[in-house]
Design brief:
By secondary structure, the chain is an alpha+beta fold. It has 2 domains: 59 residues, Orthogonal Bundle (434 Repressor (Amino-terminal Domain)), CATH 1.10.260.40; 130 residues, Umud Fragment, subunit A (Ribbon). Helix content is 24%, strand content 28%. Helix 2 crosses helix 3. It is elongated and about 60 Å long.
Length: 233
């Protein structure tokens, strides 16, 4: 099947869903669903429908690659887990780099005096992050919950602005910091995805809209951490 609409129709048949039942479930009209059958699933709904039917986004969009996520098979019995497994950062010993904190003032990134996070130089080098390109920002919203908590410390690689589908990036939008997973559609349309898909819809921006709204990719989010402020009551 060459059209994602054909694959959607087949998925409904596999699940025993009629198009009208599916439309009601998704809060759209039957005409919307018929249009998806004919023209393909809109890019803005691919993540939602791929999650709903437990299929790969790429397969739903293009028909390429595996249809369903493949479980990881182990050879032999599973290895025992450590009570306190080492994190990838702790595995890197040696010199620590001071990664400076930044805030946005007057639509520009400005360093916060005397505030920084120490990270192993080897860890950054292993990721291909140049020390001068690494900065810290505070997570500005709750749209990435539960993956990234509000006010978590983010570490950004300013040297990585190329969009890799599904990766998380910090953006500057109308002078405000935003954090989203990104994907690119036709005609260089940029799609912004939140981890909390119940409360945050997918957003799309054409190159003209990005320019008009001052939407730019600051860099790739490669680390985040969050220290609780108090014990649970």
């Amino acid at each position: 099947m060459n059209n994602s609409g054909d694959r959607l129709k087949a998925l409904l048949h596999e699940c025993g869903l009629t198009p009208s039942d599916f439309a009601a479930q998704r809060n759209v009209t039957s005409q919307h669903v018929n249009n998806w059958f004919k023209r393909g699933v809109p890019l803005a709904r691919l993540d939602e429908l791929a999650d709903l039917f437990c299929v790969h986004r790429r397969w739903l969009r293009t028909g390429e690659g595996p249809k369903h996520p493949t479980p990881i098979l182990r050879n032999g019995p599973p290895k025992p887990t450590l009570a306190n497994p080492p994190t990838p950062l702790l595995a890197h010993s040696g010199r620590l780099l001071k990664v400076p904190y930044y805030e946005v003032h007057n639509c520009q990134l400005s360093p916060v005096a005397s505030k920084h996070l120490r990270l192993p130089a080897k860890a950054l080098k292993a990721l291909g992050v140049q020390a001068g390109n690494a900065i810290c920002l505070a997570m500005p919203a709750s749209n990435m919950l539960p993956l990234i908590p509000l006010e978590a410390t983010l570490v950004i690689d300013l040297g990585m602005t190329r969009v890799v589908e599904g990766e998380t990036y910090a953006l500057l939008h109308n002078g405000m910091i935003r954090v989203n997973s990104l994907s690119l559609g036709q005609h260089d349309t940029l799609y912004l995805h939140s981890h909390d898909r119940r409360n945050y819809a997918v957003e799309r921006y054409t190159p003209a809209q990005r320019q008009a709204q001052g939407l730019e990719i600051l860099g790739w989010v490669f680390h985040w951490s969050h220290f609780r402020q108090q014990r649970p009551g």
